[in-house]
Amino acid sequence: MELIGDNDGIETWQEVNLLYNAALHQMETKMEILNEEFQHVHQYNPIEHIKARIKTPESIVKKLKRNGLDSTIENMVNHVNDIAGIRIICSFTSDIYRIAEMINHQQDIQVLKVKDYITYPKASGYKSYHMIVTVPVYLSDRKVDTKVEIQIRTVAMDFWASLEHKINYKFEGDVPTHISQELIDCAKMVSDLDDKMLQLNDEIMDLGRK
Amino acid sequence: MELIGDNDGIETWQEVNLLYNAALHQMETKMEILNEEFQHVHQYNPIEHIKARIKTPESIVKKLKRNGLDSTIENMVNHVNDIAGIRIICSFTSDIYRIAEMINHQQDIQVLKVKDYITYPKASGYKSYHMIVTVPVYLSDRKVDTKVEIQIRTVAMDFWASLEHKINYKFEGDVPTHISQELIDCAKMVSDLDDKMLQLNDEIMDLGRK
Amino acid sequence: MELIGDNDGIETWQEVNLLYNAALHQMETKMEILNEEFQHVHQYNPIEHIKARIKTPESIVKKLKRNGLDSTIENMVNHVNDIAGIRIICSFTSDIYRIAEMINHQQDIQVLKVKDYITYPKASGYKSYHMIVTVPVYLSDRKVDTKVEIQIRTVAMDFWASLEHKINYKFEGDVPTHISQELIDCAKMVSDLDDKMLQLNDEIMDLGRK
Amino acid sequence: MELIGDNDGIETWQEVNLLYNAALHQMETKMEILNEEFQHVHQYNPIEHIKARIKTPESIVKKLKRNGLDSTIENMVNHVNDIAGIRIICSFTSDIYRIAEMINHQQDIQVLKVKDYITYPKASGYKSYHMIVTVPVYLSDRKVDTKVEIQIRTVAMDFWASLEHKINYKFEGDVPTHISQELIDCAKMVSDLDDKMLQLNDEIMDLGRK
After folding, report:
1. What tens digit of pLDDT does each residue of A24-78 get?
2. Considering only CB atoms, which chain C residues are within 8 Å of D200?
3. pTM for the complete prediction?
4. How far from chain centre, in Å, is Cα C126?
5. In the CATH hierarchy, which top-level class contains the domain D163-209?
6. Can you tell me the ipTM of this complex?
7. Which sequence spans correspond to the domains of chain D?
8. Under an 8 A CB cutoff, do B139 and C40 touch?
9. Which of A36, A138, A141 is facing D30, going by the closest CB pair?
């Protein structure tokens, strides 16, 4: 296996772009295959939909600067974990852990880091399950294990996160206290709704089994 | 314009399928164009995503039977309004009316019927904005105005509706009272969340304008 | 109907881009619907595949300059006919005319100009059927009949045209005489192959009918 | 690695379908990544387009019967090499070998069999480069190396092959001699055209280098 943490012969922004796009494409294919298999076995799709995005060069440079690092290709590849990002949206909180487990079991995927903001939400109210993984990208002459950030969340959490993102963008991080407080209230409502819907779903699944 | 309500030379199930698939395809293209325009003017996508489906022959026959009608192509075309169905999912309740208005203003679309289950939810708690419209399908030798059912709802309403659908399917319409009651409770939580999120969104939009 | 030849309230490049992209999207949907219908009636797809492209701002400005016109939005909309371009690739020469006829018969399409480089090839050997049409784009508040250039050709003609394009690009129009001559020879081989394949196809269709 | 040649826990047609669809999906993703890389390095796309198909159960059963084998899942998986088929269409004959080489170099791909009908065309005139490979499909609990048949050919060869397929289908293998002869003549024209176009392309590439 290629070493993670050197730049693997990637020398230009175009090559970074190529490699991380390939990693996203490969990761999406993986998730679609797992979703199909799950659907076949359990008559049920855990994944509602998937969004993929490449971080813009501007955002990457900003992140490096914030961490006191020069804007070199090597620093990008080694120190920015979310150049390639994939977001997996599902219906129920329980699906989140099911999907994380499926990813964990993939033999060719290496999980580098996990942050469980479902069990331990951020102070802002933010909930999501984050993983940094490497996925192998097979180029014409070599395999490059490439980092992808995966975020897994419910539709309700995703709705909340879009609004939070809009608010942070608008106030450039300097959000008025009453707005932050209202966001926390909303996050509570999202959690309650997710809990209630999951409980109802479990109830009818149990009834079905009897 | 072709008369709505005769079968327009459609004689076989294959032709029904062809025509209504074309209507769905045309309707999706329309909505994508409107979404792009809206995005350009308002820097904002009202449409989160779109799902399209053709009713199965089995469901169509079932619906005709329920209404005491023979399973002829003519009866399908004249009496089943949701052979082609499109579902438009948006973030905020206010988007629902914005999208409905855009559809209303399309010169080549004819709105046949509207049911506003947003302002007047069903007893079950179901919320959605329904429209039956005709969209022109240009075949090689004629134009056929073809019926499409449009459902517009928020992501939270859509999540609720999926669970309700699963429950109805499981109990074949004969849902235990306590389950129905819990569904109503969930619908209330969905409404409260949608209200709160919309209010917060309006608030930050207003702040931005000052 | 909107007048063709004024700029229809289109004022910025972004709006040009939006409108012509919508026109391409609408035109592709139309062609896919016609292809499906044709397939149903004749058990045969006349269209192999479709490519769509928007002319770059640079190419548009270049074309205006070549014609002694200022780079205004109005001049773009009125004097550049191929801002939106669609290429339809088919198997047999006879399909070209079939497809052109289907487009001609569309009630909402207006054919502005036709150039039949199939019957009358260019001196270079270039063969293709060109149409300038308008397709209605339904914006939120009005309909804009928008120009699209359609090129229809066989796979063999398309192969030849790619090579010619590469050559013209390489030599910036100043192609060495022996290369031009070889291109003409190739065009002859393309024509002979297309004729032979069509003749063989017609032959077996006739055998089938007996 | 899983053993090739046992049925890897695949027990139903649905599972066969699932697995081979996943293999096709994975193989397409691989080829798209390689095409992007090639485009970046050589400013040129070797792949024109890709078609993928799953063999119908009927065709699989027919093939087994022809080989005197029972229609079991195990026989399908072990003895039918083209359940999953991918066709890669390129512009020039030289691209065919370039693509084959890229596939050969993929570390996770195993090439089981190669038939070079480019250098050694069939008596019918048929030209194509065939490979039987295995591609790893990562299911939730295991990796299954799954067979895929790859056919690589030029656009002109592909056009010819479609017509030949139509003819074989029409006459159910019992093609009249004069039709077979005309097909051979066409194949000769296809070869001559491909040779001429490649020669012209090489010539201009050389001119560019001086």
Report:
1. 999 999 999 999 999 998 888 899 999 999 999 999 999 999 999 999 999 999 9
2. 163, 179, 182-183, 186
3. 0.91
4. 13
5. mainly alpha
6. 0.91
7. 13-156, 163-209
8. no
9. A138
